[in-house]
Design goal:
The structure holds four protein chains of four kinds. Chain B is mainly alpha-helical. In chain B, about 70% of the residues lie in helices and about 5% in strands. Chain B has a domain of about 240 residues. Chain B has a two-stranded antiparallel ribbon. A two-stranded antiparallel sheet of chain B has the order 2-3. Chain D has 14 helices and 18 strands. In chain D, the strands form four sheets. In chain D, strands 9-8-10-11-12-17-18 form a seven-stranded mixed β-sheet. Chain D has a six-stranded mixed β-sheet with strand order 3-4-2-5-6-7, sandwiched between helices. In chain D, strands 1-14-13 form a three-stranded antiparallel β-sheet. Classes of the chains: A alpha/beta, B mainly alpha, C mainly alpha, D alpha/beta. The interface between A and C is large, with 52 and 42 residues.
Chain lengths: ~270, ~375, ~525, ~425
């Protein structure tokens, strides 16, 4: 098995606050890996460090053995990492299909001169891009909604469109940030199956931040738990469920709902 | 934006540009400072004192106007382009008060031409400020109600255009109402422009004008008052809450529209006071008097960090000083003082993208 | 009921203030002249002791009074019914308040005037003649009472009229009727066929183009000049549309690139100050390229700034260019505040361009070129990247867009269009100077983009027509044209915040436009 | 690559279309210029049906610009392009007001009345060209008073030139305006050269100033004259210690004055207008320039300067046209201006009297060439009018004598010098 992503004592500080504290993770290619932890545990900051939005103070991020530290977000995307957002961030005033085409940006080559002159290369590429966007719409189950403005889509469709957009850049690693936030249990289950399909059909490694424990326990192969920026536990779902430190972290932070309580959280 | 401490492996080109620019500019500045102070002193200390007096006084007026921009920006995230014209309205308010009081004779034994405003300068000035501020505040209130409130949910450039339209309207209304001539403020005798304390500096007499000191003192008082208002009162808390998040503020039972109205009233009143000061210190009022100070104050607000009240104060003062000292220190003709001011603005923003004391916008917040 | 009365009271006060304002700015006198020109009744004899000028003014004030009555008697929101009695009462209240306020003004102004007070020392337009006209040559009291009766009567009529036509309902009804007709027309099979046929579109475009090319032939020099100016602002608007409308970067110093284009043209073709006398056709691309390069140079340090920080920095840059162009240090190079005269014009096949009409066609051609380029860019990977940046810069970076490069590209292309506009502008006016590049030009161009509708080409054209055409149309209003223009700008934003022609998206999922063979399944969800 | 060719081909076609349109357009566009009688045809035909063709004066068929025709109820229009809005509106307001007085003073000519049509050009080249195009499209406009600012004027001249519409600007001082060989442009205002040289000589020879500071307001007028003074003063052997420009529209120049003060000049020469000069003079004392002489051009001469500087203005020098000190005509005009507009003549700008004269001269010249046709219409031959304006000689106006030289410079008189003494302008002998 190859290692898709590895972080070595990754640390990110904001002033005096250490948001990510020497986190070591190893994510195998083709796995579904979850990062959980109470609110403010540094999960999203961890994502931002991987995707190049933050530059870590120290530590290393290796993607297929190549360092990502210091790369800009677009370079990271080019290398094959793509992400979604906790609060959906689509390009609201663009149509669904255009959103996906933007996602394909890093895989397209046409520059401004091509665009003005409509070179054959550009036309061919554009045709293929639109075709691929349609396939992705199809894949996420949004056929017929392609010409709708993203902001007019129903909530669930927006979630799936966001994933389709992330897939458009042909990632090898997909970072999902609470993909089931705001969904009812039925929708959550659908999403769970969908995530698994991503891995199985497209062979994409998946890194997941999630609060819904049923989802986490249901699909993750490995789970890491962050608390106050530091990794306090790592293991299979079963191991995590029994880990006293994890329970304490959650209880301590007031999220006493417990690890087995799967009640939907407010978005 | 990446934080300051970067790992040694990759350094972004931007940072190199930043550093090079910074070193070049600092070097140039040091060299110029050396030249003008030690190498080839161009000015005596009396001239420097004059520059500083001029800069500080002008800066304090800029600061006062800039606060109006910043308050509105902080809450609505819009540039109130008509703010300078509100200042013009305030200046006219004060002008008419002085004209009226000048018309009331109060002859004394020594001077038969003594008028009410000469006899009671404190009352006259106070009245001018009250009337000027109130009229400007009222204009601010109606401006918001008519031109901005209906656009609350619109894309953010739309209120800007509306503000530009309002600005054009106000300028031309001022021209048509009051005529095109430039009018002189009839100050009370004691505040005659150009009179002041004579300070012996460097073998020459430097005049510290009374009007300038009045301007400075009043603007400092107003700024302190405003700071207390924003930080200590219920209204100030509500304003900050609305600035932070309008939806949440509304949920907390804050009357968002009311707070916005009041913000416009406050910023209008400050602009009006600035207008009266402008009149008293510089003596000039006409329909276009607010345009340039408006642009300058907007620059000052951004320089300080738009949205931040202390930033606006600092920015205003800084801009005033740059305008008077900049050409002198850099040895460039005064015609290019705005070029220097804008170049400094660019430099400041390159190093501090959100102004001198601006809020640090994180990726997520933007 | 109390709310209803408050409504009409407010309306009365508002219109009272409006009428007073109109008098104070002297519009009441001017409108009399304008109407006299319209009715050709300047030399007409007087009627009822009123001169034609007074009658003209009263016609105008009567319209204001009617509007006040209609406005004041409108239905209060919480009411379900709209009885006649209430409407009439409301209109009377409005008219009364309106009249009382005007009466107060008349009494004040009239008395002061009788006493010989020269009010125009402070209020420039309150001239004795204007006062006499407004008082209809009567004594203050008589004039005041007349206005109470007059406003009451017009207010009443306005209320009756407005209630009589059922207020806005007729508008809604007719709009619905139109829509129905339109839809049934669309359903006709041959219409669908014709509409669906791409040839139709080309024919329509062709006809439009033909029309546009024919108009200048009959427009006369003045309108051709105006059309040319509108065209140049279309160029500027399209350029800024890329920067503001597509890439979402607020640029308040766009005039800088315009100035660079214009000065390039002027300095390289004019006999003074450099006597280079280059050919127009060579300088044109030089100006465009220079403007684009300047865009790149400016953009490199500042494009990392966001939103309003960028706005002020660009504003500063525009001012810097203007100040430098007139500065003492560069007078020998730029011609200083005097500007550059005798800027060269193009010659095509031996024919020099020397009239407004020649330039109109040149500008049309430039506009077509720019529309072509914009259209191609907008519907490409580059255009999508720009729009994504406008929508959400952070996410667009995560989508693999190098935002800095894309911003620079947008800036440079926008600057190039401005350079093109500036070069043609200088050549057409045969003159250029620092006064042509004031901050107001930048602001006007931003307004062109926003007023028309951000991010789309027809919107920019509509915006340019409004921003540069409207002031010319308003010339009838003499000194009031800019005042009215400012008010209209506000009104336009309140009326259509999304612009005159809001942006619409290209349909891409269905394969009509892209020519891809596969037919998508109809899988619409609710 | 194929696409590329297509694009080029499209261009080629487009340019050919353009060329075709261009040539097709020629007759329409240039008709008024070359065959002006043709444009007047509709106007002349209409009366021709009622009256014999001989009603049209013979001069119209020979005049290179054709005739402007006025039916009995039409007014003869004099156009004016002026900044009526914006920062410089005071100039436009003032000049148009003075011009209107001249028009009403002129009364009726052969039963036809005159009208001054003042249009807003904002003082810019763009506005100037727009207004000029509007005027040339109006057959009733026969002459232009203006434009007011040099930039607008420069853009307007090429538009009036082919239409034979003469101009008389009371205020556009840019020297290059009369050097391009225009036959329509004239002005009754000083140019920078004459005045600046005079001023520099007086400063050096009479006032014995050795160290001079030159300032200006960055306008075409102020900068031009300041440059001349600077050069002339240096040529005389004087020392220019500072050359600084201020930004008009600002209200505070204390910093730049402090800089000038540090150079210890004996006098300040200022090129510009009253608005900024007043601020400078009022701030001089506080800036440490209490002992320096303030010397300026005709842009500051006038009552407004005195009213607004009061005691600070004592000892200020300014050049002006040799006004007949208080000629009855000028006194009458001043009274009429005050009565009509509520502000004193010369308060809004210094060009009030020039403006009155410019309009009066144009009216006089129109009257000299206009011919009443046999059909009751008034005919004004355009080219003859252009020539008549250029030939103006010894016209005694309220601002001085107006005589146009072959280039269109009509302010024949030499400047005189005035000094403020006891709150009034006194002519320095």
């Amino acid at each position: 098995m190859t290692i898709a992503l590895e972080t070595r004592s990754l640390t990110k500080q904001f002033g005096g606050l250490t948001a990510v504290d020497s986190v070591d993770l190893v994510i195998q290619e083709g796995s579904i890996f979850s990062v959980i932890g109470p609110n403010g545990a540094g999960k999203t900051t961890f994502y931002n460090c991987i995707t190049g939005f933050y530059e870590p103070e120290s530590g290393e991020v290796l993607f297929y053995d190549k360092s990502l530290v210091g790369l800009t977000p677009d370079q990271v995307t080019y290398r094959g990492i793509s992400r979604t957002y906790q609060n959906i961030r689509l390009f609201a005033n663009m149509s669904a299909i255009e959103n996906i085409l933007v996602g394909e940006h890093s895989r397209l080559r046409a520059n401004w001169a091509d665009a003005i002159l409509h070179t054959p290369r550009m036309k061919k590429e554009e045709k293929a891009a639109v075709e691929k966007a349609r396939q992705l719409l199809n894949f996420v189950g949004l056929v017929g909604l392609g010409d709708q403005l993203a902001r007019n889509l129903p909530y669930g469709a927006q979630r799936r469109l966001e994933i389709a957009r992330a897939l458009a850049s042909q990632p090898r690693l997909l970072l999902l940030d609470e993909p089931t936030a705001g969904m009812n249990p039925h929708e959550s289950v659908d999403m769970m199956h969908f995530i698994r399909r991503l891995r199985d059909e497209l062979g994409i490694t998946i890194l997941l931040i999630e609060h819904d424990m049923r989802v986490v326990m249901g699909i993750s192969e490995q789970i890491a738990v962050l608390d106050y920026g530091a990794k306090i536990a790592e293991g299979t779902p079963a191991e995590i469920q029994g880990n006293p430190r994890v329970i304490e972290a959650y209880l301590g932070s007031g999220a006493a709902s417990g690890l087995n309580n799967t009640a939907a959280r407010p978005a | 934006m990446p934080s300051a401490k970067a790992p040694a492996r990759r350094v972004s080109t931007y940072k190199i540009v930043q550093t090079v620019l910074g070193i070049l500019f600092a070097g140039y500045l040091l060299w110029r400072l050396y030249v003008v102070f030690i190498g080839n002193p161009a000015y005596g200390s009396d001239t420097w004192a004059r520059f500083i007096i001029s800069g500080v006084i002008l800066g304090s007026v800029y600061a006062l106007i800039a606060i109006g921009y910043t308050l509105v920006y902080g809450i609505l995230r819009m540039i109130n382009f008509a703010h300078g014209d509100i200042m013009m309205i305030g200046a006219f308010g004060g002008y008419f008060v002085f004209e009226a009081l000048k018309a009331i004779p109060a002859p004394t034994l020594t001077d038969p031409k003594f008028t009410f405003s000469d006899a009671h300068p404190i009352i006259a000035v106070l009245l001018a400020f009250i009337v000027g501020s109130s009229i400007a505040a009222l204009s601010g209130f109606f401006l918001e109600k008519i031109a901005y409130r209906p656009l609350r949910g619109a894309p953010r450039l739309v209120p800007l255009i509306s503000a530009i339209g309002a600005s054009i309207f106000l300028e031309n209304a001022g021209q048509l109402l009051f005529g095109t001539q430039r009018r002189d403020y009839a100050n009370p005798l004691i505040l005659t422009r150009g009179d002041g304390w004579n300070l012996p500096i460097g073998g020459a007499t430097v005049i510290l004008p009374y009007t300038g000191v009045l301007t400075l003192v009043v603007s400092i008082l107003l700024m302190v008052g405003l700071y207390l208002l924003v930080m200590r009162t219920r209204l100030g808390r509500s304003m900050r809450a609305v600035a932070e998040n309008k939806q949440v503020a509304a949920l907390m039972g804050i009357d968002v529209d009311g707070i916005i109205s009041r913000t416009f009233i406050i910023s209008g009143a400050l602009a009006g006071a600035a207008g009266v000061m402008w009149g008293i210190h510089l003596g000039l009022v006409y329909y276009y008097v607010g345009f340039l100070p408006g642009i300058k104050a907007f620059t000052a607000a951004v320089l300080g960090g738009i949205g931040s009240v202390p930033g606006a104060m600092l920015g205003g003062l800084f801009l005033g000083l740059v305008e008077s000292l900049g050409p002198a220190i850099l040895g460039i003709s005064f015609q290019l003082k705005d070029v220097i001011a804008f170049a400094i603005l660019v430099l400041v923003l390159i190093f501090r993208p959100t102004g001198i004391v601006g809020e640090v916008l994180t990726e997520e917040k933007v | 009921m109390r709310k209803q009365i408050k409504l009409s009271l407010n309306a009365g006060i508002t219109f009272g203030i409006i009428t007073i304002f109109l008098f104070l700015v002297g519009f009441t006198s001017t409108v009399a002249d304008i109407l006299a020109e319209l009715f050709h009744n300047k030399a007409a004899t007087s009627l009822l002791g009123l001169t034609p000028q007074m009658l003209n003014m009263l016609i105008f004030l009567g319209l204001v009074g009617l509007w006040a009555g209609a406005f004041g008697s409108r239905k209060e929101k919480s009411r379900s019914d709209d009885p006649w009695g209430v409407a009439v009462l409301d209109s009377l209240i409005t008219g009364l308040v309106h009249g009382l306020l005007v009466c107060g003004l008349v009494l004040l102004v009239g008395t002061l005037d009788l006493r010989g007070v020269r009010m125009n020392v402070y209020l420039a337009q309150v001239l004795p003649a204007a006062v006499k006209l407004f008082l209809l040559g009567k004594a203050p009291l008589a004039g005041g009472l007349f206005y109470i009766v007059f406003m009451l009567a017009t207010g009443f009529l306005g209320g009756l009229f407005s209630r009589g036509i059922g207020r806005g309902s007729w508008r809604r009804r007719s709009a619905a009727a139109w829509k129905n007709t339109w839809e049934s027309f669309n359903r006709l099979s041959f219409v669908t066929q014709v509409r669906g046929n791409p040839i139709t579109r080309y024919v329509i475009y062709g006809l439009l183009l033909l029309l546009v090319f024919l108009v200048p032939l009959g427009a006369g020099q003045y309108w051709n000049y105006t059309i040319g100016t509108v065209g140049i602002y279309v160029l500027l608007g399209l350029g800024l549309n890329i920067v503001v409308g597509l890439a979402g970067l607020l640029d308040l110093g766009y005039v800088a690139f315009f100035a660079i284009g214009a000065y390039t043209m002027a300095l390289l073709t004019a006999p003074a100050p450099h006597h280079l006398l280059w050919s127009f056709w060579i300088v044109l691309p030089v100006g465009v390229v220079l403007a684009a390069i300047t865009g790149l140079l400016l953009g490199t340090p500042v494009l990392r700034m966001r939103g309003d920080y960028l706005a002020i920095v660009t504003l500063g840059f525009g001012e810097i260019i203007r100040i430098l162009s007139k500065s003492d240090d560069l007078t020998a190079f730029t011609g200083g505040p005097k500007g550059v005269t005798a800027v060269g014009g193009p010659t095509l096949f031996g024919k020099p361009f020397n009239s407004a009409i020649d330039y109109v066609y040149l500008i049309f051609l430039a506009v077509l070129l720019v529309i072509f380029v914009t259209n191609r860019l907008q519907n490409s990977r580059v255009g999508r990247a720009w729009e994504a940046m406008r929508e959400d810069e952070t996410v667009s970076r995560a989508m693999g867009i190098n935002t800095l490069t894309q911003k620079l590209l947008a800036f440079a292309i926008g600057a190039a269009f401005a350079g093109l506009g500036g070069a043609i502008f200088a050549s057409r006016n045969q003159f250029t100077g620092p006064d042509d590049f004031s901050l107001m030009v930048s602001i006007n161009v931003v307004a062109v983009v926003i007023v028309g509708g951000m991010g789309n080409i027809p919107g920019v054209i509509a915006g340019a027509l409004v921003l540069k055409g409207l002031p010319e149309v308003l010339r009838q209003l003499q000194d009031y044209r800019v005042l009215v223009f400012g008010a209209l700008l506000v009104a336009m934003m309140l009326w259509r915040p999304a612009g005159i022609i809001p942006s619409s998206r290209r349909k891409m999922e269905s394969n009509k436009d892209t020519g891809v063979t596969e037919t998508p399944k109809e899988g619409r969800e609710g | 690559m194929k696409r590329l060719y297509f694009v080029f081909a499209a261009f080629l076609v487009a340019s050919m279309v353009l060329a075709a349109c261009g040539t097709a357009a020629t007759p329409t566009a240039s008709a008024p210029a070359t065959q002006a009688p043709a444009t007047q045809a509709p106007a002349t035909q209409a009366p021709a049906t009622q009256a014999p063709a001989a009603a049209v004066p013979a001069v119209c068929s020979t005049d290179a610009g054709g005739c402007a025709v006025f039916k009995p109820d039409q007014t003869i229009k004099i156009g004016m392009g002026a900044p009526m809005t914006g920062d410089n509106a005071a100039f436009g307001t003032d000049i148009s007001q003075a011009g209107k007085l001249a028009v009403s003073d002129a009364g009726k000519f052969q039963g036809f009345s005159f009208e001054l049509d003042a249009q807003d050009d904002g003082g810019t080249g763009e506005g100037g060209a727009a207004v000029a195009n509007k005027f040339v499209a109006d057959p009733q406009v026969v002459a232009i008073e203006g434009h007011i600012f040099s930039g607008a004027t420069a853009a307007a001249i090429p538009i009036y030139e082919p239409k034979n519409i003469p101009m008389m600007s009371p205020s556009a001082t840019n020297p290059t305006l009369t050097t391009t060989g225009s036959k329509v442009f004239n002005r009754n205002v000083f140019t920078d050269g004459k005045q600046g040289k005079f001023d520099a000589e007086y400063l050096y020879n009479t006032l014995k100033i050795t160290d001079l500071a030159v300032m200006h307001d960055g306008s075409a007028y102020g900068q031009g004259i300041a440059q001349v003074v600077n050069d002339s003063f240096k040529a005389l052997g004087g020392n220019v210690v500072a050359f600084q420009a201020i930004t008009p529209g600002e209200s505070d120049y204390s910093a730049v004055l402090a800089d000038v003060a540090s150079k210890k000049p004996g006098a300040i020469y200022y090129g510009g207008y009253t608005a900024e000069a007043v601020i400078l003079v009022n701030e001089m004392k506080a800036a440490g320039l209490g002992s320096a002489i303030f010397f300026s051009d005709d842009g500051i001469y006038g009552q407004d300067f005195l009213d607004r500087t009061k005691a600070n203005g004592e000892g200020v020098y300014a050049t002006s046209a040799p006004l007949p000190p208080e000629s009855p005509a000028k006194t009458t005009f001043d009274a009429a201006y005050l009565a009509a507009y509520g502000t004193a003549a010369g308060k809004l700008s210094t060009y009030t009297w020039n403006a009155y004269d410019a309009a009066a001269v144009l009216i006089k010249d129109i009257e000299s060439v206009a011919v009443l046709g046999g059909d009751g219409n008034l005919y004004i031959p355009r080219a003859a009018l252009v020539a008549a304006v250029r030939a103006t000689k010894d016209y005694q106006g309220i601002s001085g004598v107006i005589t146009c030289d072959p280039t269109g410079e009509c302010s024949a008189s030499n400047p005189i010098l005035n000094e403020v003494k006891n709150g009034g302008w006194i002519v320095v002998p």
